[in-house]
Specification:
The complex is a heterodimer. By secondary structure, chain A is an alpha+beta fold. Chain A has one domain: Immunoglobulin-like (Sandwich). In chain A, 14% of the residues lie in helices and 34% in strands. In chain A, the strands form two sheets. In chain A, strands 1-2-8-7 form a four-stranded antiparallel beta sheet, with no helix packed on it. Chain A has a three-stranded antiparallel beta sheet with strand order 3-4-6, with no helix packed on it. The longest helix of chain A is centred in the first third of the chain and has 17 residues. Chain B is an all-beta fold. Chain B has a single domain, classed as Sandwich (Immunoglobulin-like). In chain B, strand 3 and strand 4 form a beta hairpin. The radius of gyration of chain B is 20 Å and the shape is elongated. About 6% of the residues of chain B have low confidence. Classes of the chains: A alpha+beta, B mainly beta. At the A-B interface, helix 1, strand 1, strand 2, strand 5 and strand 8 of A face strand 1, strand 2, strand 5 and strand 6 of B.
Chain lengths: 151, 125
């Protein structure tokens, strides 16, 4: 009855992603060097990382997480994000039908290796709109500075 | 700098590609509930539109990022989410309820009163 609601326009992209995965497997993902700790496509949470002049910024796309179940730790330059996301869907019964079950549930763990100039003793983490933002300051000595030219 | 687009090549002629958010869809006697993962989308940058029988969800990602940020690694490469659904006539699109919490959108679309299940009496001839 609700076939119209389960036939997603996104399926085209899913097909394309499957194709892309096959191509990556065939080519051994050449020409696109990836981090040794990079997870497979679609891992939860997705991670973006960037640098500014004085810090390394890491963003984990982790919506709907109970703060109490979120754990950020750092050990020898490796930042680990771990936690658990509860399953939102009820059991299917004669009163409840589930048409799509795409959202991640269960426990997760992802690791990011921090650059050498990161000062891992001063990591700040905030959680807003489902994004866990971690800011790792750079060591003072690693910050760009201006060198005076003397006469 | 836009963190989600490492090699920002802006071309106004090309529609910006969008991410397809994962969803859970369930139906019970009251109606249909859709949950969508939209991390980075605030209540203000979310748009939900109903046009005829089409329900469209669109959201703009904002990371609250620092200025002068240079992306070094990115798994999320678009700054927009888009997904749409075709609803059916037994749903009451005038009473859709939407809430946003920690980047998860919960949409409930109730059924029209006359569409709710009822027992049909079988008469004996």
């Amino acid at each position: 009855m609700y076939a119209s609601l389960t036939r997603f326009p996104g399926d085209m992209f899913a097909d394309f992603e499957a194709l892309q995965r096959q191509v990556e497997q065939l080519l051994g993902n050449r020409g696109w060097p990836s981090s040794i700790r990079a997870a497979e496509r679609g891992a939860f949470p997705a991670i973006n990382m960037g640098v500014t002049n004085d810090a390394i910024e890491i963003y984990a796309f982790a919506p709907g997480i109970d703060m109490g179940k979120l754990e950020v730790s750092v050990d020898r330059g490796v930042l680990t994000i771990a936690g658990e996301r509860a399953r939102d869907l009820p059991q299917e019964s004669d009163k409840v039908s589930v048409y799509a079950d795409e959202r991640f549930s269960g426990s997760f763990r992802r690791a990011v290796s921090l650059p050498e100039d990161a000062d891992s003793s001063r990591i700040e983490a905030t959680y807003r709109d489902g994004i866990l933002r971690m800011r790792v300051p750079k060591r003072e000595s690693a910050k760009p500075r201006r060198i005076e030219v003397k006469d | 700098m836009d963190m989600t687009r490492p090699n920002a090549q802006r071309d106004s002629n090309v529609a910006e590609p969008a991410l397809v958010p994962p969803v859970d869809v369930l139906e019970n006697e009251a109606g249909i509930t859709v949950k969508a993962d939209l991390p980075g989308v605030s209540k203000e940058s979310l748009s939900i539109r109903v046009d005829g029988e089409t329900l469209a969800i669109e959201g703009q990602v904002s990371l609250g990022e620092a200025a002068n940020l240079e992306a070094v690694y990115a798994e999320v490469r678009n700054a927009q989410y888009k997904r749409s659904f075709v609803l059916s006539r037994d749903l009451d699109t005038s009473r859709i309820d939407a809430t946003m919490k920690n980047g998860v959108l919960t949409l409930t679309v109730p059924k029209l009163e006359q569409a709710k299940p009822r027992r049909i009496a079988v008469r004996a001839e």
